[in-house]
Amino acid sequence: MACATWLRSSSLSHALLPILCHRTSLSTTLRRFHRLSSTDRFVPYGNRFKNPLMAVHAQAKRGFSLKEDEVATPADLYFEAPLKIVEYPDPILRAKNKRIDTFDDNLKKLVDEMFDVMYKTDGIGLSAPQVGINVQLMVFNPVGERGEGEEIVLINPRVNKYSKKLVLFNEGCLSFPGIYADVERPESVKIDARDITGARFTVNLSDLPARVFQHEFDHLQGTLFFDRMTDEVLDSIRAELQALEKKYEDKTGFPSPERIKTRKLRKVAAGFGKS
């Protein structure tokens, strides 16, 4: 079980420092990110970096309003270990994810288990629906190694602002094993969220951490990374997506809930979008 660090708002300015400061080189980190998942990874606990490569500012913020979503019940947060990665085209990945209002030991155990499966599957980030739990929760550690970097937990995140500058990057996703393709996203985002204790905070992210967050946030909106690809890029992985659809049908005995062959352009927020 991963030993997650339960971060308070006051520690986030350290928690979100780039993983690029540890012994792994930038190129190695980016290669690891490519073979991973959805922006499925992020930073080590216990270490505090000097001379950060990424400008990050975090501050406690009280009283900001969150869009009122349906609240998760104890049954919604029930899980059995070990968790398993949900693969496309399982409908769980498109289902609505509920807001978390209970910050208890069960939630901490769930976060521990999510970090555990993330590390075991070589990810740097993971969202709750990717392990079959439809709630607004994500974890990440850009270093992607247990005991290195810093483990970040974001609950009920919302996008406050995002940059106009867009960056193209080759992404992968744990729910799409072995599939990688270019996705364009804003270079930086400002987000509001809660930490594992329920405390609200605001943080600015840029570069790799911003991309990891955006990928995982998409999962919480039922958006998958191929929804943001151009038709040309999508064509390059179409056969691989169809193979996953057939795998789902062979495993479940049911027809695929969606088919990339007949896919129509899915409407998603331009660039990244607010929620």
TrEMBL record:
Cellular compartment(s): Plastid, Chloroplast
SUPFAM superfamilies xref list: Peptide deformylase (SSF56420)
Any one of the GO CC terms: chloroplast
Catalyzed reactions per annotation: N-terminal N-formyl-L-methionyl-[peptide] + H2O = N-terminal L-methionyl-[peptide] + formate
Cofactor section: Fe(2+)
EC numbers on record: 3.5.1.88
Record keyword Signal present: yes
The keyword Transferase belongs to this UniProt entry's keyword annotation: no
Enzyme type, top EC level: hydrolase
InterPro entries the record matches: Peptide_deformylase (IPR023635), Peptide_deformylase_sf (IPR036821)
Family: Belongs to the polypeptide deformylase family.
NCBIfam families per record: pept_deformyl, PRK00150.1-3
Designated name of the protein: Peptide deformylase
Source organism (scientific name): Liquidambar formosana
